[in-house]
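Researcher: Re-running this chain for the archive, since the previous output was lost when a drive failed. Same request as before.
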Amino acid sequence: MEHHYTFLHELTKLNKKLLKMTAIVEERVRKAAKVIETKDPAVIQSIILSDYEVDDMEIEIEEDCLKILALHQPVARDLRFLISVIKINNELERIGDIAVNIAKRIDNISKFKHPAAISYDFSRMTDKVSAMLKKSIDSLVNNDTRLARSIFVDDDFVDQCRNRCYEDIKVRIKQDPEHPGYHINTYLLARHLERIADRAVNIAEEVIYSVEGTITRHN
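Model: Regenerated structure tokens:
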């Protein structure tokens, strides 16, 4: 009985740590999306300098998972949950890294001496990416596989936004061949946002696996 209680207690603590990490990452992505528009140097630096928080938490959560696996040897849904936590933990850490990359990219763009440049409007793309991440986290919190599956359709919209940005940037480079770096960095923002969306999809897939035992990758 005591062994069972300890196991459930450790699973509960692990879940709380994972949810704390999701909150930190979601806030970081929200800041990164906003800084694309504002280019606020203070916010840029706050995103870059706080990267260690997510890295440290990822290591701690992974170590907890491995400890539980070694000590309790869980089976069935408990085992699926732990496997999913390890994978989701890694996805969240990568999303945090991408948010930092966005901040660094904006910092580079801000340094380009190109007063005639027209900023690219990423608002629809950032709104959709932020909504996808929120959905993936909500599906994790509520074990909601229906919500998790709805993210797959959203991903198509983000891919279309990235493709549209690519075509627009090609035109801009032709019209403004003296500043290719500015335009390429702008397109790379779209790539970063698309990668966050892809990782939100990965989280949703792990939620479905944890709850149903169904592998949806590549389907």
